[in-house]
Specification:
Layout: E1 4-13, E2 23-33, E3 38-42, H1 49-53, E4 64-69, E5 72-73, H2 80-86, E6 87-90, H3 103-113, H4 118-131, H5 147-159, E7 165-169, H6 177-194, E8 197-201, H7 205-208, E9 213-218, E10 221-226, H8 228-232, H9 235-240, H10 247-257, H11 269-281
Parallel strand pairs: 3-8, 3-9, 6-7, 7-8
Antiparallel strand pairs: 1-2, 1-4, 4-5, 9-10
The structure holds adenosine-5'-diphosphate and magnesium ion (MG).
Length: about 280
């Protein structure tokens, strides 16, 4: 059984004025995500990624269709807390997610709200800070940290609640390249070592290459999905929908368009070099 399951989900934001029609932004979206899977969710601005993601921890409820988390129906008000404990949401701006003036207090905030006993909270906070490699900063003030460090603290705050799944909505969008790498490495480590299911929303194509599965959204629908190689082999389709592909993929694709005999898809620099080397030698 899928851990996260969206079945024929439609969603419309209620419009402010009464005589205005509410606008449907998700149309019949179905998607299942297995426990332990790492899924990257792509799509250009306004395609419905954030709206869809918020359905996975009952921040938003479907207007039509169903969403299940570990078999729990998000429409059931009584299950909301259970669902929020299972699925943590990390947002784009770390400054909006940090609440305390000391790092370890911030990480403790979530488990405190769950009513966990203090010695257990202490253990969880230390574990979470080690998992994101920020243990040495536990007594620092969050506002003095770099963007990447702050985002890792936000992730630690989620981990301390021991979720099965973390949904991250463009967590690297506001970070410099180094911060991006730190956060991405952290997410992969949590997936690999703790088996945490990951849904990573990103508009950096290179970040999607390391996922088990890539899902592309367009105008409130799923345009295509598959392994990174399956998805990024469809360069023309992605371009037709104003989406880019990883740089290595783009280079090999353009040369192929020029008539060079090259493989269909290179996902990273190594594959790109392997594809171009014979060409350059001949
Ligand atoms: N709070 C809101 N109220 C009304 N419309 C919204 C709201 N949030 C997003 N939308 C609209 O829903 C559509 C999908 O937005 P969103 O889910 O944020 O897309 P993405 O995350 O892919 O950029 C857009 O047309 C956007 O304008
Ligand atoms: Mg968004």
């Amino acid at each position: 059984m899928d851990y996260l399951s969206a079945e024929h989900v439609t969603f419309a934001y209620q419009s402010e004025s009464e005589n205005e029609e509410s606008l449907e932004v998700l149309h019949d979206v179905s998607l299942g995500i297995r426990k332990g899977e790492f899924v990257a969710l792509l799509g250009h601005n306004g395609s419905g990624k954030s709206t869809f993601a918020k359905h996975f921890n009952a921040m938003l409820l479907p207007s039509g269709g169903k969403v299940y988390v570990d078999g729990l129906d998000t429409m059931d008000e009584n299950l909301k807390l259970e669902i929020r404990r299972r699925v943590g949401l990390v947002l784009q701006n770390p400054d909006n997610q940090l609440v305390a003036s000391i790092v370890e207090e911030d990480v403790a905030f979530g488990p405190e709200n769950l009513g966990i006993a203090p010695p257990e909270i202490r253990r969880r906070v230390d574990d979470a800070l080690r998992a994101v490699e920020m243990y040495d900063y536990r007594l620092n003030a969050p506002y003095k940290l770099s963007g990447g460090q702050k985002q890792r603290i936000a992730i630690a705050g989620i981990i301390a609640m021991q979720p099965d799944c973390i949904v991250l909505d463009e967590p690297t969008a506001m970070l410099d390249p180094r911060g991006r790498t730190e956060v991405l490495d952290t997410i992969h480590k949590l997936n690999r070592e703790k088996g945490i299911t990951i849904v990573l929303i990103t508009h950096y194509m290179d970040e999607a290459v390391g996922a088990d599965r890539v899902v592309v959204m367009d105008e409130g629908r799923i345009l295509t999905q598959g392994t990174p190689r399956e998805v990024f082999s469809q360069v023309q389709l992605l371009k037709d929908h104003q989406l880019s592909v990883p740089q290595a993929t783009e280079l090999v694709w353009r040369l192929k368009q020029e008539g060079y005999d090259l493989p269909l898809c290179a996902l990273n620099i190594d594959e790109c070099v392997a594809a171009l080397e014979p060409l350059l030698k001949s």
